[in-house]
Write a structure and sequence with these properties.
Chain B: Its cofactor is thiamine diphosphate. Chain B: It holds the Pfam family Transket_pyr. Chain B: Belongs to the transketolase family. Chain B: InterPro entries: PDH/Transketolase, THDP-binding, Transketo_C/PFOR_II, Transketolase-like_Pyr-bd, Transketolase_C. The complex is a heterodimer of chains A (about 270) and B (about 325). With about 270 residues, chain A is an alpha/beta fold. Chain A has one domain: Thiamin diphosphate (ThDP)-binding fold, Pyr/PP domains (Rossmann fold, 3-Layer(aba) Sandwich). Chain A has eleven helices and seven strands. With about 325 residues, chain B is α/β, with parallel strands linked by helices. Chain B has two domains: about 5-175, Rossmann fold, CATH 3.40.50; about 195-320, Rossmann fold, CATH 3.40.50.920. Chain B contains 13 helices and twelve strands. Chain B has helices at about 5-30, 45, 50-55, 65-80, 90-95, 100-105, 135-140, 155-165, 215-225, 245-250, 270-275, 300-305, 310-320; strands at about 35-40, 60, 85-90, 110-115, 145-150, 170-175, 195-200, 205-210, 230-235, 240, 255-265, 285-290. Chain B has a seven-stranded mixed β-sheet, with helices on both faces. A five-stranded mixed β-sheet of chain B has the order 7-9-8-11-12, with helices on both faces. Chain B starts with 5 loop residues before the first helix and ends with a helix. Classes of the chains: A alpha/beta (about 270), B alpha/beta (about 325).
């Protein structure tokens, strides 16, 4: 897919994230992490993943696992783009007893492969499912697992990472959203994991590092064949696209006022929420 | 599935619950259900899984010493339509992985059957890291998970086959070692998960137990009966969902006694107490098990003695509670 097309999808996702954040009111939304992975999701749902909205359980589908599930707001937007969620569901999100709350709940009919909210759990689930697919000779379906760099503090990530390499599960692709921020500050200050690429390499992965906001680089990384299981390190900016939220830890989760919303819409030069 | 013949009961008795589950039932299940998997965390040999591993290498997965990961892998396999048996020592299986269990089995309702071996104080001289007397309490606190504790290897065998045939998450707590006493009788017919079994009916006391403590309970009850204390004995192999109809039938007893190789907090005794507590008038519930403490490590027999789980101690405690 061409750059322009993918960037347009990413922009749609960002606009939906902003709408949901506005509607969530003073309870706040995970804008930082959502914007950080918006381009990754745009490329996955726009050009890489195979899925069929009319047959969500199709065995040949690629499965997306949002392990850093607090960024669900971006997944909701991507699933609306893909056709799994309606505009109404997006407009109602994060309010009252809405279907969509801050973390996704497993419901394959709507494209949710996995319930999230407890960090460090998605990679193992993908690995187990990959074993099942391999043993029933489904060689095509892939698992894309989005993991936060802060989330990599969890030891369970590394248990699953070892398992994937030991069993050579090449159809599981971990994507690290490396934005260098977590709840309490810079990842290097809170818990320094050293060089992320080296870490995954040492586990037994072929690592591809990309600019996580360059859709063409992302697309190429997803398409690249590797010898060993592949891990993609996406260098990103938390809050990307929202000027005052970029690289600002306060926007891990925060309240977007109407004024702020208008400001961003102005900066983006788009129509916004009516 | 094999019949409950005298010959089978003898063989299973020798194998114990774990041996019967891992060495007999699992092999039959892996053969019958092509979508079944067995997972271990570096405990294949010690769990008696060698035959499963050799007969079904394609559906046997060793995750290494990584119990939390085992539950995640199990969840992934289950998400793709498989029934997954995940097993290691009960202590590590339930406590190390608690949040994984809650998330994948409780919240996501994955079709995973946990087989916790050597529960209670079976591990004797290994010490407290290897004892498991909190597992029933924590497992039954999670919505959606069925919790069972078979009284003997024959019950364990039947529970395994029912578990394989039933969709949904389950915790199977295995107690006792090899050469277990069998309380199952061929002529009684089988058990059903969720339905307790009244081994004998009496009028004064109801003794409700779960697990391999069955034989000890039966000896204690013989002592009570010899003094004319008429006792009902109930094998509550399923702790969740609890057979409340059975508890309702026991409402007229002077006292209800629960006996388990588990903490007196939150296990079978907790579940039974919670049931009776909702009624304004109900019999006193006496919970016999491990008090709220870490036991000083010792051989299993000495640990049971400390916990008051011998025939004499159970008998004396019940007599005392009856003011006799």
């Amino acid at each position: 897919m061409q750059r322009e097309e993918l960037e347009k999808i990413a922009q749609t996702i960002r606009e939906d994230i902003l709408t949901m954040a506005l509607h969530s009111g003073t309870k706040g939304a995970h804008i930082g992490g959502g914007m950080s992975c918006a381009d990754i999701l745009a490329v996955l749902y726009g050009s890489i993943m195979k899925y069929d909205v009319s047959d969500p359980e199709w065995d040949g589908r690629d499965r997306f696992i949002m392990s850093k599930a607090h960024s669900a707001i971006a997944l909701y937007a991507a699933l609306r783009y893909a056709g799994f969620l309606s505009e109404k569901e997006i407009n109602d999100a994060l309010q009252g007893r809405a279907y969509l709350y801050k973390h996704p709940r497993m419901d394959i009919s709507h494209g949710f492969e996995f319930s999230g909210g407890s960090l460090g759990q998605g990679l193992a689930l993908a690995a187990g499912s990959a074993v099942a697919l391999e043993r029933r000779n489904n060689k095509d379906a892939k698992f894309y697992v989005l993991i936060g760099d802060g989330e990599c503090d969890e030891g369970s990530i590394w248990e699953a990472a070892s398992f994937i390499c030991h069993y050579h599960l090449k159809n599981v692709v971990p994507i690290i959203d490396l934005n260098h921020l977590q709840n309490d500050g810079n990842t290097e200050d809170v818990m320094d994991l050293g060089n992320m690429a080296d870490r995954w390499r040492s586990m037994g992965y072929d690592v591809i590092e990309v600019n996580g906001h360059d859709v063409m680089e992302l697309q190429a990384a997803f398409l690249q064949e590797t010898e060993k299981p592949k891990a993609i390190i996406a260098h990103t900016i938390k809050g990307k696209g929202v000027s005052f939220a970029e690289n600002n830890v306060d926007w891990h989760i925060s309240y977007l006022t109407k004024e702020m919303y208008e400001q961003v819409i102005g900066e983006w030069n788009c129509a916004g929420d009516k | 599935m094999q019949e409950l013949t005298k010959r089978n009961l003898r063989a299973w008795s020798m194998l114990g619950q774990r041996g019967t589950v891992c060495g007999v039932a699992l092999i039959e299940i892996m053969e019958e259900y092509q979508n079944s998997y067995t997972l271990t965390a570096d405990l294949a040999h010690l769990s008696g899984l060698d035959r499963v591993q050799h007969m079904f290498p394609e559906r046997f997965v060793n995750v290494g010493i990584a119990e939390q990961n085992m539950i995640g892998i199990a969840a992934g396999l289950a998400a793709e339509g498989n029934v997954v048996f995940a097993t290691t020592y009960a202590t590590f299986l339930t406590m190390r992985c608690y949040e994984q269990i809650r998330h994948h089995m409780g919240y996501q309702h994955m079709n995973i059957k946990l087989i916790g071996s050597a529960a209670g104080v079976e591990m004797g001289m290994s010490g407290n890291t290897h004892y498991t007397y909190e597992d029933i309490a924590i497992m039954r606190a999670i919505p959606n998970i069925t919790v069972v504790s078979p009284a003997d290897p024959a019950e364990a065998y039947q529970i395994m086959h029912q578990a394989a045939a039933t969709e949904g998450p389950m915790y199977i707590r295995l107690t006792g070692g090899m050469n277990q006493q069998i309380i199952t009788k061929c002529e009684d017919g089988g058990i059903q998960i969720g339905k307790s079994k009244e081994l004998q009916s009496g009028t004064d006391v109801a003794v409700i137990f779960a697990g391999n403590i069955a034989g000890t309970v039966q000896k204690a009850v013989e002592l009570l009966e010899s003094e004319g204390i008429s006792t009902s004995v109930i094998d509550m192999h399923t702790i969740k969902p609890l057979d409340t109809r059975q508890l309702e039938r026991q409402m007229g007893k002077k006292i209800i006694v629960t006996v388990e190789e588990h903490s007196i907090i939150g296990g079978l005794g907790g579940a039974v107490s919670e049931y009776y507590a909702q009624f304004e008038r109900h019999p006193k519930v006496v919970r016999i098990g491990v008090e709220d403490q870490f036991l000083h490590p010792a051989g299993k027999e000495l640990l049971l003695e400390t916990a008051g789980l011998t025939p004499q101690k159970i008998y004396k405690r019940i007599r005392k509670e009856l003011n006799r």
